[in-house]
Amino acid sequence: MNEDSRRQHDHEEAYASFKSFFHHLGDIRSFLDDLGAVAVGNPHEEEEEEEDAGDA
């Protein structure tokens, strides 16, 4: 029974590590999405301003 208990404990630790890993991946993805929105979003705003200035 001791070996079964140890396996269960190892399984729970592995599952917790697995969940933690994917949680961190989600944080990194969110950060990269935000970073990409800032990097890509600014040039589009400038292009729109240039078009508006050309119409005036």
Verbal overview:
The chain has a domain of 34 residues. The radius of gyration is 24 Å and the shape is rod-shaped. It contains 1 helix and no strands. Helices cover 96% and strands 0% of the residues.
Low-confidence stretches: none
Distance between the termini: 82 Å
- The amount of beta strand, in percent, is under 5%
Summarize the biggest pleated sheet. Answer: none
Number of strands: 0
The ordered H/E elements are H
Q: Taking Cα atoms only, what radius of gyration do you get, to the nearest Å?
A: 24 Å
Question: What fraction, in percent, of the residue positions are helical?
Answer: over 70%
Comma- or semicolon-separated keywords:
mainly alpha
Annotate the secondary structure layout:
Layout: H1 2-55
In short:
The chain is mostly helical and 56 residues long.
